[in-house]
Amino acid sequence: MKRLIAVFLFALMLGPLTGTLTLEQHPHDGQWFTVDPTERSWHPIGSTFEIPQQLEPSWANDETPWWERSALDQNNNYIHDSIESELEPIGMAISYSEEVNEQHLQVLESLGFEVRDVIESVNGVLLGLVEPELATTLASLEDVVMVHRYGQVVFYGDVQTQNVKARNSTIYPNGAWDFGVTGKGVNIAMVDTGVDNEHPGLVGKFVAGYDAVCYNPSDPNCVLNGFGVRPTDGTFDPDDGNQHGTACMGMAAATGLEADGSQSEFYGSAPDSSLVDVRIGTDAGAGPFENYVLEQEFYESAMNGIQWIIDNKDTAWAGADESLHGIDIISLSWGITSHEGGGSDGTDMHSMILDEAMQAGIVVSVAAGNDGPDNDGLSGMGSSDLSITVGASDDGNTIDRSDDTVASYSSRGPRRDNGDNNPLNELKPEISAPGTNIIQSEGCVTSGTCNNFVGGDASGNTYTSRGSGTSYATPSVSGILALMMEANENLTTAEMKEIIKFTAERKGEPTQPEVDPFWNRDFGWGIVDAYEATKLAILLKEQNLNGQIDVFTQVHLNQPTLTNNTSEADSSMYVISGFAWNQMGSVNSVEYRIDGGEWMSASFEDTDTTLGPLEGFQWTIGLDLDKLPSGDVVIEIRGLSDEGQSLPITLTVQGNGLMDSSSSGLDLDSIIFVGPVIIIIALMLFFISRTETPLLLVNSSEESIDEALEKDYDLSVVVDAELLEHESK
What we know:
The chain is α+β, with helices and mostly antiparallel strands. It folds into four domains: 2-16 and 672-728, no CATH class; 31-56 and 552-659, Immunoglobulins (Immunoglobulin-like), CATH 2.60.40.10; 75-149, Alpha-Beta Plaits (2-Layer Sandwich); 153-492 and 522-538, CATH 3.40.50.200. The chain has 15 helices and 29 strands.
């Protein structure tokens, strides 16, 4: 009997494997092949697992310094071109090729130049008003690589929060707040005209502040400290004499509370985020209506304010909880105009300091500008290589995004070419958000009777007066970045920027498909999606992928959606296809896995053609829905390069479970782990059956052997076999 049990166990073990030992006909034969023993995943006949060869782009190893290729210096004499046509004194700054040292400053002073400020992050010195003919003298100084011209500071707000999917709605039932994130523990540096944080929707948010301008005659704090003299330790709390800064902070972080304690619907996208208030503008704001001297002061104050933020990115603020130390986000709803035709190419001093902030770990959200569709390039700051430049959409005052259009005033891309042969950093803006007819948090001055200087504040104010501009789109994105940072505190600035682009809702046809198949000069990569961006930030944390993302490796699904193959022969085949490329090198592989299983290679078109820079290639995966377990099945897709992996694609398909081996109680994993145990037991039983006396053959009664065998036919067959075996020997 034990031999029978052994035979049964062997059969049980081998049963699930018989499918791999025979050549059966499958409904996908002739069109698909598989190397998957479970036969869940398939690939088109004629495809290959060899990834196409890709050429490295010329810009990947280009180390030409920015001053050798700046579009603001076409004649390469290290002087901004517009300076050379001026006759009156203009604001100037200089850049050095190395850190500014005491010897540099002494030389400047010996020549009679006034050092207004040193901007360490960009090796720059601000000199104020200088005669145009002295630019040549400055350019000839040792280590000086560019003489810059000051630009003008121009300040460029409800269904906005629901439209960007931060807060859920009946139109979009899933919002980023559903993940339990509201920006708590994240500090937003609002760099603007100051913020009246006594407003009921902003009360309690102030963590630190700094006044980089201190020319506000309506601010008693500035007057009492002496004009131009202010604390630098974060204890100064600037007031808003203009309204712009308070409105912008409300769009990022307002709680919606009213002065009477009631709750309005006017939330910012991150209502629990905190404020670092950096004032760089005056009661008059900033713009061409102001006098020449004030424009100069604003330029210097803007540079000084951003440098202060970089210097204090990790500062432990007095009286603040440890979770609120430092600065996480810079929100900039203004820009620096360029005096050169075609705008800035990102080598202006303001754009470069924003690049430094991003590299220092402070993510930057900056307005694209309000110059409309016929603009000639973008202003400084909005042209920064690394920061997130935000354009404005018009949501039509509806939550539904299907009717959203580009705002008529929003500046269009691309920015001016910086001469590095890389067409990617000209793709500005990166993202769009609603900026038209936005309800604002009222600052003190908005009521008409409130004055900061005589003790007034915004504590009794509400939300009113619709405004429009990329100014109002930008802080909404700043708030979304705060949601992402709370969800995943280890995100890098580059990862945040890539997630924002990757998860955006595409709008418009691609403007330069040969450079990028998604970017559009009106919307950038699309309208920001707070829900999907936060969801992906959480996934990176759950899978411990922070710091492993190569933002240049691009893997995308084919647009617009995935579809089932509905032909009769392949009725259960679900085809996932897409394309991949690397912006700085090569994609080494495109892989996928099913429900967290082993990673497998997608297949590629079999070609001997070598792909040029930015030229993508197709990849394909076929899934047999009948072989997948019944219900939701999670598919993950990634691309790998020498520098890491792409952002992961995650999608859910519905398995049919019609031929799921797990339904019989034995799947492949069960065979792997339980199989050896079955084999051992079977062998032991077989061995025992050969060495021990069969229990049923022990004549413990008066029965004969024949009588005992008649009672067990199966046993008699085994005994006959034993007898025959012995006789043959």
